[in-house]
C-alpha cells in the first residue's frame, strides 16, 4: 500500500479546483507574453532625460514562449493526473458514501478515510503519481542543509538572493514552494534558487502551510 500524508491527500482533494485556477492563470500569462511582442520602438526616459530604442530578439522571444507553454503544460499535467485519480477514487464509493462526503465537505469521517485508502491503492499502481524517493545518503545531506538553514538568521538567509516580486504573485510563489517541498521533497536552499526568492521566505511559506494542515 502506498503511504500518503494528509497534506498530500489534500492536494488530491483540491486538484480539480487548482487545475481550473492554473488554466485561467496560464491563459492570462500567455496572452501577456504575446502582448509583449512589438517592433523596435522609440522610448523616452523622463527621469534621465534620454531617448532610447527598445526592441526584442525574435529568436530569444520565440524560445521564451515555447518554454513558457511547456512549463504551463507540465504544471497542468501534474494537477490533471491528480484530479483524475481523485475522481476515480471518489467514483468507487457508494452513492451514500459520496453523499456523506459532500455533506461534510470532506471533513474528518469514516467515508473520508475510505476515500483516502482507495486513492492510495490507485496511486500504488501509477508510478507517475508517486512521490520520488531520495537515496539515503542524499537525504542525510539535505536534512543537514535544512538544519543549518533553520539555525541561520533572516539576514544570513536573505544575503545574495534576488526576488521575483514583480513577476510572480504571492499565491503562486507559496503554491510552488509547498509543491516542491512536499511533493518532490526539495530542500529549502534548492527551492530558493529555483524560484529566485530568499530562503527565509521559502521557510516562512512552508512553516505556515504545516501549521495550517496540522
Explain what the structure shows.
This protein has 2 domains: 1-130, no CATH class; 135-214, no CATH class. 68% of the residues lie in helices and 5% in strands. The protein has 9 helices and 2 strands, in the order αββαααααααα. The protein has helices at 6-35, 58-91, 95-103, 110-124, 136-151, 154-158, 170-182, 188-195, 199-213; strands at 41-45, 50-54. A hairpin with a 4-residue loop joins β1 and β2 (50-54). It is elongated. It starts with 5 loop residues before the first helix and ends with a helix.
Number of domains: 2
Largest sheet descriptor: 2 strands, antiparallel
Helix-strand category = mainly alpha
Oligomer: single chain
Q: Supply the number of helical segments.
A: 9
Count of β-strands: 2
Average pLDDT rating: 78
Which stretches are poorly predicted, pLDDT < 50 over at least 5 residues?
A: 159-168
Broad shape: elongated
β-strand percent reads: under 5%
Q: Distance N terminus to C terminus?
A: 23 Å
**How are the strands of the biggest sheet laid out side by side?**
1-2
**Strand-and-helix sequence, N→C?**
HEEHHHHHHHH
Radius of gyration (Å):
22 Å
What share of residues is helical?
Answer: 55-70%
Amino acid at each position: 500500500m502506498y503511504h500518503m500524508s494528509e497534506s498530500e491527500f489534500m492536494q488530491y482533494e483540491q486538484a480539480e479546483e487548482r487545475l481550473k485556477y492554473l488554466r485561467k492563470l496560464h491563459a492570462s500569462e500567455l496572452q501577456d507574453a504575446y502582448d509583449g511582442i512589438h517592433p523596435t520602438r522609440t522610448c523616452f526616459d523622463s527621469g534621465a532625460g534620454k531617448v532610447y530604442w527598445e526592441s526584442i530578439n525574435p529568436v530569444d522571444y520565440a524560445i521564451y514562449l515555447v518554454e513558457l507553454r511547456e512549463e504551463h503544460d507540465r504544471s497542468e499535467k501534474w494537477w490533471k493526473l491528480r484530479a483524475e485519480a481523485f475522481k476515480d477514487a471518489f467514483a468507487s464509493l457508494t452513492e451514500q458514501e459520496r453523499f456523506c462526503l459532500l455533506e461534510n465537505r470532506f471533513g474528518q469521517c469514516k467515508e473520508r478515510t475510505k476515500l483516502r485508502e482507495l486513492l492510495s491503492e490507485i496511486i500504488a499502481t501509477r508510478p507517475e503519481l508517486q512521490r520520488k524517493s531520495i537515496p539515503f545518503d542524499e537525504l542525510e545531506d539535505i536534512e543537514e542543509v535544512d538544519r543549518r538553514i533553520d539555525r541561520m538568521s533572516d539576514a544570513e538567509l536573505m544575503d545574495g538572493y534576488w526576488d521575483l516580486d514583480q513577476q510572480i504573485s504571492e499565491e503562486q510563489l507559496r503554491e510552488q514552494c509547498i509543491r516542491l517541498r512536499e511533493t518532490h521533497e526539495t530542500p529549502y536552499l534548492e527551492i530558493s534558487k529555483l524560484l529566485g526568492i530568499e530562503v527565509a521566505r521559502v521557510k516562512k511559506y512552508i512553516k505556515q502551510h504545516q501549521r495550517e494542515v496540522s
